[in-house]
Queue: 4 jobs
Job 1
Amino acid sequence: MARNTQVTADHNAPPVTQTLATFVATHPSKGWSDAVDHEAHRTFMNWLGCAVGAAHHEAADAALAAVNMLQPAPQASVLGRREKVDMASAALLNGITSHTFDFDDTHLKTIIHPAGPVASAVLAMAEHLGHSGRELIDALVIGIDVSCRVGNAMYPDHYDRGWHITGSTGTLGAAAACARLLKLDVQQTAMALGIAASQPIGMREQFGTMTKPFHPGGAARAGLVSALLASKGFTASPKALEAPRGMMQTISTKNTWDEITDELGQRFEISFNSYKPFACGIVIHPSIDACAQLRKQGVTPDQIERIELKVHSLVLELTGKKEPQDGLQAKFSVYHGCAAGLTFGYAAEDEFSDAVVTRPDMVALRRKVVATVDDSIDEASADVTAVLLDGRRVHVFVEHAIGSLQNPMTDAQLEAKFQGLSDPVLSAGRTRELINACWGVGDAAHVKALVALAVPGHP
């Protein structure tokens, strides 16, 4: 029986695989402004703190136990732990821990968490092969540019289909970054991207489980291996991204090619990175911020009759879990976010612990949150009214939450966040040394000294 194999596709797509490969292989070291370079250091520090902070989460324990069954060679460090594994497994594990708390960076235009796949891959490779800090930062900027530009071209259709865009584009970013570290030529880099293009990772169905943080870890490992394969002559289609049956046209009907090529090498997507003050899905942040502001105005949980929350439909689509059963689920509950904001005035990782999520007072308070959709409100905003038992109404509208591009976290705030994550795993003194090393990594002769500071008990 014959079948229809015709597809609706763009047969005249530009050669973006080759264009990106040329950029990755030939763009000059530190070929960007000081502001971009500073943002790269902020991104790296934020990623490292998140990875160290979750080093002993049960997800990390399970992943490391599985990896150890493969008897890996001790090539690279697992951040925040004493163990060493092979560099591909280190990329996997550090990618998992960097996203476990959902506290990592966000490229707001695409909701990509770009550092997880890219930084996890390049640090593991750089540690094992002895690269300098400048080589690492160069690879980080370039890898993030690749993943976010591809994300720009496919978002939102690709995301709406159910793909976790961090993992699916992260394989490309990690491959590009590792190809850069390995100093692959243009043709080899195109092959690395092509190999990675057959490995998009992650479905949104997994949100609220350990498999969500697996996505950036899996993407980091896939990208690193793709670059290693290409370095040894392994081949792929030179049109793996743009071809009618290539990656992008297979997993998205929207492919705005000029989002990849426009100002390539002049505008860097890491400039549009943002950092989370709250350890949960980014669309919850305006609601938490609003409830924290209510608390500052003197509103307390015992005064609440109900909380009227108006948000964009995407907020409830992504984070509409009314009755989260544990901390991972609560990271996708705007109801818990509101309760945490009002109760604590913030929502770091402890406020998403299983113990806090199941507390009777938290359960009762989040059941008083009445959320309605209002698509006239931007995805990045929230309209919150506390209706009090005495009949008063206290209103807060947050247009841009703290941590957004319009209201960014300062360097000092990022350091404080890092300390909160790292101190329980390392020590206050070691954390301070590690923060200083992160700020100076671009000038470091090699990255091994920095990695040593992120390992407990290392001299």
Job 2
Amino acid sequence: MSEIIYSVIIPCYNVQDKIVNCLQSVLSQSIHSDNYEVIVVDDGSTDSTNARIMEFTDFTNVVIRSLAKNSGLSSARNVGIRLAKGSILCFLDSDMTVEPTWLQQFQTRLEDKNIVGIIGDCKLPKDVKPNKLDHYFYSPIRGARQFSEEEALGFQWFLFNNTAVRKFAIDAVGGFNEDFISYGGEDTELAIRIWESFPNGLRYSSKAVSEHHHQRSLSEFCETIENYGKTNFPRLIKAYPKYKKQLGSDWVNSLKGYIVFNPILGNFVLIFNSIFNSYVLVRYQVIYSVVKGARKSL
């Protein structure tokens, strides 16, 4: 049997309608199945997710762990990390599908030994009509997409929904912080630790593509991200006060913050955004939601 190089870690919770397509896409990779394993961690699902996962027990390169209760994304990913045998850890969200060349694209980029982590691109499924939030999410000027593939990324651009990281880097800094239970912040917290140890080691790949099968409305996402501002965002700032500016904390309680992000201007943006399809207006609403949540926490 060949050496396992890639450990694909897929945490899942109540994704009974999506997990089969996700696993089928990962198990259809162009590289030999002996070279990668797929670690599926069911984080205490209450629907039929676990039953759907068990349909893949005949695959020799699939490892399944079912947790007794829901403990959060960080905990589920850490279970996968502890089980991993590969030298490259690939993290993928359970509501995503990938192309057959997904792992091969990571493999090509990681031939450069100076690179310790790569974040792939994320796209809307081709058969889904984009809404206001999608135009923002998948904009070419948002996130890591705004950088060339040769530029070293800062920690704030590095997420773990479609990512490959050398295992020695994770071992060096430790896994995900399990204090982050609700949505948001756990990716950035780990990315900070990796970036501090390997400041020139993070990159972006436009070719390691995933499709995200979880369309949300702008109002739904803003509600979620406001809760992040209330819970995990303050936790992140408290742990890393020296990165307040990079994390956006300087907009919460500063004079400039109250001038730019306030109820009056926020209502005007809400009205204009209902009329126009604008990246800038959506971005304002998203950031203001985080700011509102953070102000409530104080």
Job 3
Amino acid sequence: MSEVRVNQAHNLPVDQAVEKLKDFEDMVSKYGVKLVWNGHRAELKGTGVSGGVEVGPNNVSVLIKLGLLARAAGVDPSRLEASIRKRLTAAFGG
């Protein structure tokens, strides 16, 4: 199983930081992955992927675990990481 981890600093109140993740949520939904929110944490659920998002007072952390189905479908962890970084940078700057 491959893992993709991305951290992004922010200087927003946590609730506003969660709202800024809508573009990221839209991106993953195109691939059949849902974010199931419970407060400031979300669980990633989808075929061949799992993981989560945690929004802290100064940081957003994303962890995506790619299972065999995702890798068999051709998901490239490096490209996925770059895409996540791009979206988080666009959302939070920096």
Job 4
Amino acid sequence: MSSLNVSKMLLNLIGVAMLLPVSGFAQGQERVINKLSWRTEPIKILKLKTKGKPIELGKNFLEEDDWLKGLTVTVQNVSDKPIARIVLDLSFPRPEGTSETISTFSEKLVYGLDPSDAQDAGAQKQVLPGESVDVKLLEANLPFIKAALVELGYPEKITRARIMVEFVTFTDGTAWNGGDILYPDPTDPKRKFNPKVPLIRPIPPDRSALPSRPPLLLFQNASLQSTYAPAILNNENFPLWKFLLLQDPTLPCNTVFVTTQHLDCGTGGSGCTYSHNVFDDSIELLGLRDARKDLETVLCKKSDGTTCSPNLISNFKRSPSRRSDCRRWVRPAGLQHGQWSH
């Protein structure tokens, strides 16, 4: 073989070698995970990784279609209480301008158990103040996520996701949700309620059971049926003058958060449930509106976060406003600063 042919062969090999990494990157696509934040949060996200590689919130990264595989969120307890359970909400935004009547699919990343679910108190995981833990997206749930996105009409290529701290339960049974501390119902400790909105009568579940086949999109009516304005007005936490105040119209609070329940998914008492948030939209409580709700679709889960039913459930979740704090009141004329607070 002549030296000229050898030189040509070497040049060809070098050219192929140089193209290999480019081809590899070309198969990937830019992805991004953003974060929705509350004004106060009991945990702090320290880092993320997917497929074993670190990524940064809000920054694009190149990855294949299986980019959610191995998604791990490291969080730190920045509160002053031990934490028993953490639920992170991983949602997939619809395109800009999509109607609010179109639900967003959300997957839950779960760590730990509610204290009422721990059969052995000594075996209960807890995250002490200052400690950090990994909250993982279960690989077994990935096929269900993919099927749900197809069922809900998402595009074939999913490139964006949002993460939000949804629910944090402390070892004493109280819970943080959307900046408020909720308390366990003595008759059902897993049911957490807003102490500012007293419950007058039990809230009937919208559905007692769900069909297992075929997958069905179910819309849960989240209108409040358990509180009345007189009860609110007689509550010492809400003096009458507060009820008469108007909200700042630039802040999109649109409801009053009441309670969160865990409803059975109709799988024969197997512990397969979904979270059902209850809100009150009534005009009588206009001045007390302290929350924003968004329509989401979820899958039923066991207590460890494992998907246990392919059925899709549509429900309302509590979401931050764009200003991350919508609980502001317009002070009427004559009332001095410092005489009230949100």
